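Sequence in, structure out.
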Amino acid sequence: MKRYIIENIKSFLKVEFKGQNIQLEEVEPIVADNLINYLKNVRGNQQDHAVRHAKTLKSVFAFAQDNGWIPYSKFANKSYKRGVKKEIHFLNEKEIRQIVELKLYSPNLQLVKDLYIFSCYTGLSFADVMNLKASDIQRYEEDFDYISKARQKGAENSNFKKKVFFTPVLPEAENILKKYEEIAQLSPEGFYFPRITNQQINRTIKDIAALAKIENPEKVTYHSSRRTCASLLYNYGVPISIVAKVLGHSSELVTLTLNPKVAICLKIPMIANH
């Protein structure tokens, strides 16, 4: 169980029961429904995120039943619906070029543009870009630079097995790194890029996409850069096993969910051989 989920549930239970201690057998299944509503309406979380918490709460009661702490779990027959699956969005090479060639005169807009394009060509998540340091960039036998480090995702959980990504620095990404070299040298913490929040970058990238005449700019998010990277690498002929390694995924199945076109193309030969 992820620590942050447990902490969120504990915070909710303090509100739900007004700080009072309560026996496990006194907790009714409606508490899980209230938890979902709390996370969505008070915390502003999405349905899937809230449901993950409710399922964790259900697991706690199943564990309590297995250990004889309660005669049975009132949550056993409860099910929780996830949200409607969102359309997977990514940019094609033409759209990336439209953003690259867009002239911007605001330093803030330029920063967001650079970070987004950097992730399109490296596959790094926002958290990994913000935590990137010069020491994470290494040279491979005088041939090319590459970035290799543990992903930030799941870093809040000490029991989480960190996934390591390995991504070569392509020319487009190298140009951006050179642009921010001096900032990296001046940063007290050694971070390569200037600080910006996830909310700021997601709001601004939509504006940039609109200026670049990208279709449906409201669908462009920073995370779409990772999907774009997966699509680019696949189109360049990179095997899906290598794409998974670049993105720091635990399995190729996770990578396939980023791009349905890739998934379909890989499944066609499998179907034909049966």
